[in-house]
Amino acid sequence: MSEPIARPRKAVIPVAGLGTRFLPATKAVPKELLPVVDRPAIEYIVEEAVRAGLSDVLMITGRGKGAIEDHFDGHPEVERALEAKGDQQRLDRVNASTGMEVHFVRQGVPKGLGHAVLCGRSHVGDEPFAVLLGDDMIDERDHLLEQMIEVQAQRGGSVVALMEVPRDQVSLYGCAAIDPADEGQDVVRITGMVEKPPVDEAPSNLAVIGRYVLHPRVFDVLEHTPPGRGGEIQLTDALLELAGAEGEGAGMTGVVFRGRRYDTGDRLDYLKAVVRLGREHPELGADFSAWLDGFVRGDAT
Known about the structure:
It is a single chain. The radius of gyration is 20 Å and the shape is globular. Helix 8 (217-223) crosses helix 9. The chain is built from 11 helices and 13 strands. 33% of the residues lie in helices and 22% in strands. The strands form 3 sheets. Strands 5-4-1-6-11-8-12-10-9 form a 9-stranded mixed sheet. By secondary structure, it is of the alpha/beta class. It folds into 2 domains: 10-265, Spore Coat Polysaccharide Biosynthesis Protein SpsA, Chain A, CATH 3.90.550; 266-301, no CATH class.
């Protein structure tokens, strides 16, 4: 009788990207700290990990990202001032790292997502773990990561989040080939992956989005994965090797996500995310929605 698969306890969040698409806003401010309504984007990602039971968070940082560490550190002066005022609501907002352990490792030279994940090896150890990309925000009402953790516990190997996209957009993503027997299902066996394929070469319209639950065997593969597309070490290449491997930690499953996702790595989609989440904000939503409706009609100032 095989032993039960350990459940993930740790999340790895790569945050070493340069944020060039948001220049000049990101010249001095990490893109992960750009506000989505009234909170930095990275807070939404960390809170998602904690909701899924991953209270040990490792961020893979780089040069110019010190402000992220500051954000998740304490701020005694502000906290004392708020305590003196009895302003518990704002005090709770300041304590961004409540209920979690947050650790940081420097990537040094940015060599791609695969290399960023590999930088977390000594912290993660020999256990399954989750990877959350900061550009992909999953609505808190949708429980994608929790579902992926359950699937990994049942099937082993690694689990990747997929999303159906229009065929003409597949070249913007990693794209998955799946077992034909699983077509139309929400949990599928992945047989291959292609990083940003031309439309006419894409194996499906199932795009890989920024959530992974990985077996630690991926570290061994990443150690010898050569640079791929863009001269970078691609996580996709390592997962493709595991998909066709045998033994412990081999195999790859996809979970097709049909919920609400916000892409904060694109300027237009970032604006859409701010509007959508602003309309649903518990304090600001009603007033903002009323103003926005009037603005669209042309009778609001």
